C-alpha cells in the first residue's frame, strides 16, 4: 500500500518537544508523496490556547491546497479544567490524586472551533487518571477514556488507542506492563464496545505510525497483536485513518516500513480514509 494522507502532525507551536516549521512540513510532505495532511498541535488546558492561536496564524500564512488545520486534545477532568480556567494551577500529581470516576472533559468548545477555524479534532488518551499502576485498573481507566472520546460530539479521530507513554511504564510498572507483553490481556468485549461506539458516532480511529507501529520501546509481539486489533476493528466497520504523530524538526517518518507492516497485516489503501472527518458528511 501507499500512505498518501497524514492527519496527526505537530509543529514548533505545540506545547511539547515538537520542532517542525510549517514550510518544512509542506515541502517534505510533497517529497514523500503525502497528498493530504493537517497539523494538530496539543491542547491540554486553556493554558495552551495561545499556542493554538499561534499555530493558526502560521497556518494561514502558508495555507495551501490539501493542507488542513486541526488540533489534538487530551482527556482531562472537569475539576482540573475548571481550576485552571479560574486562574488556578493544577498540582503536578493531579492525575494520581484524581478520583477514578471523576468527570472527564476536554479543554475545547464549539466556540473555539468556530473562532479558530479548526477543521477536525483528534482526541487522545495520554495518561492514567486516578488509578494505581496496576494492570486491571489501567485497562479499565484507559477504556473509559477511549469510550469518552468515541462518544464526544467534538471528536473526529480517536488517536492511538492503547498508547501508553514509555516513561510511565518504565518508571512505574513492571517491564512491558500493563499490556505490552501480551495485548490479549485486554478483554475483547472492551474492543467490541469501543468499535460499536466509534461506528455509531461516525468517528475515525487512527493508525499511529510513530507512537505505535514504529515505537522503539514496544516489543515486536505487541506490534503484531496491535495490528491484529486494528484489523479486527476494521472487520467491525471501523474506519481508519493515518497519523504519523511527527514531533521532529523534519518530516522524517519511515512511511515505507509502516506501509510494509500494514500490508503484511492485511490493511490496504482502500481501508484508509483520506479525509479527517466522517460525522460532518
3D architecture notes:
The protein has 281 residues and is α/β, with parallel strands linked by helices. The protein has a single domain, classed as TIM Barrel, CATH 3.20.20.140. Helices cover 40% and strands 14% of the residues. A seven-stranded parallel sheet has the order 1-2-3-6-7-8-9. Strands 4-5 form a two-stranded antiparallel sheet. The mean pLDDT is 94.
Strand percentage, roughly?
A: 5-15%
Along the chain, the helix and strand elements come as: EHEHEEHHEHEHEHHEHHEH
What is the count of structural domains? 1
What's the count of strands? 9
User: Which fold does the CATH topology refer to?
Assistant: TIM Barrel
Short description:
By secondary structure, the protein is α/β, with parallel strands linked by helices.
Structure keywords:
281 residues; alpha/beta; TIM Barrel; seven-stranded parallel beta sheet; 11 helices; globular
Secondary structure blueprint with pairings:
Layout: E1 5-6, H1 22-31, E2 36-43, H2 49-62, E3 67-74, E4 76-77, H3 78-85, H4 94-97, E5 104-105, H5 110-116, E6 120-124, H6 135-151, E7 157-159, H7 166-172, H8 188-200, E8 204-208, H9 209-213, H10 220-235, E9 239-243, H11 255-265
Parallel strand pairs: 1-2, 2-3, 3-6, 6-7, 7-8, 8-9
Antiparallel strand pairs: 4-5
Helix pairs in contact: 6-8
Amino acid at each position: 500500500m501507499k500512505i498518501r494522507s497524514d492527519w496527526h502532525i505537530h509543529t514548533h507551536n505545540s506545547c511539547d518537544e515538537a520542532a517542525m516549521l510549517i514550510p518544512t512540513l509542506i515541502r517534505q510532505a510533497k517529497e514523500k508523496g503525502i497528498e493530504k495532511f493537517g497539523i494538530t498541535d496539543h491542547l491540554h488546558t486553556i493554558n495552551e490556547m495561545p499556542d493554538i492561536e499561534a499555530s493558526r496564524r502560521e497556518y494561514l500564512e502558508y495555507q495551501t491546497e490539501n493542507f488542513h488545520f486541526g488540533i489534538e486534545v487530551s482527556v482531562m477532568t472537569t475539576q482540573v479544567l475548571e481550576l485552571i480556567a479560574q486562574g488556578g494551577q493544577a498540582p503536578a500529581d493531579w492525575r494520581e490524586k484524581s478520583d477514578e470516576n471523576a468527570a472527564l472533559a476536554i479543554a475545547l468548545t464549539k466556540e473555539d472551533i468556530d473562532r479558530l477555524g479548526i477543521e477536525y479534532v483528534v482526541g487522545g488518551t495520554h495518561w492514567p487518571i486516578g488509578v494505581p499502576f496496576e494492570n486491571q485498573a489501567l485497562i479499565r481507566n484507559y477504556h473509559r477514556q477511549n469510550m469518552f472520546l468515541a462518544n464526544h460530539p467534538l471528536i473526529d479521530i480517536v488517536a492511538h488507542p492503547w498508547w501508553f507513554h514509555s516513561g510511565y511504564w518504565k518508571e512505574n510498572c513492571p517491564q512491558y506492563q500493563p499490556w505490552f507483553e501480551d495485548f490479549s490481556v485486554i478483554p475483547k468485549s472492551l474492543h467490541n464496545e469501543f468499535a460499536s461506539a466509534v461506528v455509531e458516532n461516525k468517528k475515525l480511529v487512527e493508525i499511529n505510525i510513530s507512537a505505535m507501529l514504529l515505537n522503539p520501546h514496544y516489543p515486536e509481539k505487541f506490534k503484531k497483536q496491535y495490528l491484529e486489533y486494528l484489523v479486527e476493528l476494521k472487520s467491525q466497520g471501523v474506519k481508519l485513518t493515518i497519523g504519523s504523530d511527527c514531533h521532529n524538526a523534519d518530516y522524517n517518518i519511515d512511511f515505507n516500513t509502516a506501509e510494509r507492516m500494514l500490508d503484511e497485516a492485511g490493511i490496504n489503501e482502500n481501508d484508509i480514509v483520506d479525509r479527517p472527518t466522517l460525522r460532518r458528511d
